[in-house]
Every structure is written in C-alpha cells, then in structure tokens.
Design brief:
Blueprint: E1 5-10, E2 14-19, H1 31-35, H2 39-54, H3 66-73, H4 77-89, E3 93-96, E4 100-103, H5 112-120, H6 127-151, H7 154-172, H8 178-190, H9 195-206, H10 209-215, H11 219-237, H12 241-265
Length: about 270
C-alpha cells in the first residue's frame, strides 16, 4: 500500500496523483504533499479539520456529506472531494459505501502524517498532542545522539562546528537562533546515517514551527540552548555516548519543562 497511487480529478489541472509512499513511512513533511494540491484544496483540508475539532466529533461518528461540507465551508464540492480524499489517505476519515463519511479513531487509526498535517494547515494541536510529541522526540533524539557518537565522520563534526559558530553570531546580534537550533539537532540525527530516523525527527520540527518561534523569542532561552548544544557537541566529538546522551536528555528535559509551563498557563490549543 505504501507505493500505491491515490488519484482524483483536480478542479485546476485535471487528474492529480500522489504516491502514498511520500506520506508513509517517510514522515519528512506534509508540505511536499500539500504543494501537489490546489491552494483552495489545501485551505479546505484545514477547514474540514477545524470543523471536526470545533464540533467535537467522536470516532465512528458520521460527518457531513460532501455537499453539506461545501455549503458549510463556502467552497465547491470538487475541493471538498479532494480534501476528503487526502484525509482518507491519511486515515483521518473513511468513506462507507451507501452510508457516508465517518471519522476514524484519530488516536489509534490515523497516520502520523495526519498530526503533521494539522500543523501544516494551521490547525492548532491540543496540549496533550504537544506533550506527547515532545516526549517522543526526546526518546528518539537521545537514541540518535548515542548512534552519532559511534558513527559520526569528520565531515559531520565540521558541520556541527559551523552551526555553533553561526549560532554564536546570532546571539552576538541578540537574534533568534530558531533555525540554527533546528539545524543542530537535525545534523546530529543525520550523522547517525539512519535515513528513516532523519525523516521521522524532521516531522517533529515541521509540526512545531510556530511554537519554536515563540520559544526562541526569549534570548535567555537562546543562550541556554547554545551552551547546552556546546556540551552535547563536545561529548559527540569525544565519542562519549554516556555523556552525550545525558547532555541531550537534560537539554530536552528542560525544553519539555518550559513547554509544560506554557501549556498549563496558555489556551486549550497551542499552535
């Protein structure tokens, strides 16, 4: 199934195709997938997801028909059909012959890409989803840094050093290091040589772009992150897996703690 094609007739350019293999198991980003869709279809996907969340639909519950969705969202049935097809491919909804469109169990049946899709289409994640994502990212990156200690090359170290230099330059200008922070973590994962792990971790950064802008708007967090990155790099360079894993675990634990405070003091949904 991963390499099957899903196809539907697009309102702008005729028949559109997308390999499910680009969605699963790659996890790299839903952005490339969304770019294949008409802008109005992308907007409709976000509207449908928002509608489902705002109306608090339960798994197994029948949703509106394509016609009713089009009327409710102020769009055409063509764009609704394309949006539903995309959501069906990611196991968010299912069509039942002669019955209608139903919501699947988002916690146990929908794909990981569906979670990333929420972020790509501007649909806020719930606090529990953010917390779960942070916890999973932490587990993956602690393992990644252990592999990086064993597998990194001189070229990998050079890239990490350049990243730290670029980060320092940003700090000297009192600028956000959001992009440099993301690159640092991605470089560590890339140095493992595990391409599936790279794609999986990339997805977590895709779904947290807006949150990260907020996080790194605080210069004290930027400076602390740089200092912790420097310690992590030192351990990787010396191939000290125990010290590296402890350093990155402490680093990510601090991030989780900060977000827990923000989530408990913020709204019900966090972008």
């Amino acid at each position: 199934m991963w390499f099957d094609l899903i196809a539907w007739k697009s309102a702008d350019t005729g028949v559109r195709y997308c390999k499910l293999g680009q969605l699963e198991p790659a996890f790299a980003s839903c952005g490339a997938f969304l770019e294949r869709l008409h802008l109005k279809t992308q907007k409709t996907i976000g509207q449908v997801l928002n509608f489902i969340r705002e109306r608090k639909y339960e798994s197994g519950e029948r949703l509106l028909s394509e016609r009713d969705f089009a009327q409710k969202l102020g769009t055409t049935r063509q764009y609704v059909r394309e949006a539903i097809t995309a959501l069906e491919a990611m196991r968010v909804v299912e069509r039942r012959p002669s019955s209608g469109i139903y919501l699947r169990d988002l916690n146990s049946e929908s794909s990981f890409e569906a979670l990333v899709l929420h972020a790509d289409t501007g649909v806020p994640l719930q606090p529990k989803e953010v917390a779960d994502a942070l916890e999973t990212r932490r587990v993956l990156e602690v393992q990644a840094v252990t592999l990086a200690c064993a597998r990194h090359t001189d070229a990998d170290l050079a890239k990490l050093e350049r990243n730290l230099s670029a980060t320092r330059a940003r700090l000297d200008k009192s600028e956000s290091i959001e992009l440099e922070d993301r690159e640092f973590h991605q470089l560590i994962v890339a140095s493992t040589g595990n391409h599936v792990l790279v794609r999986l971790v990339n997805a977590f950064y895709e779904m947290s772009q807006l949150r990260r802008k907020l996080f790194f708007a605080d210069q004290s967090r930027c400076l602390r992150s740089f200092e912790e990155h420097s310690r992590i790099f030192s351990a990787i360079r010396e191939r000290d897996a125990d010290r590296a894993s402890e350093a990155i675990d402490a680093h990510l634990s601090q991030t989780v703690a900060t977000w827990e405070k923000l989530l408990t003091s913020g709204s019900d949904a966090v972008e």
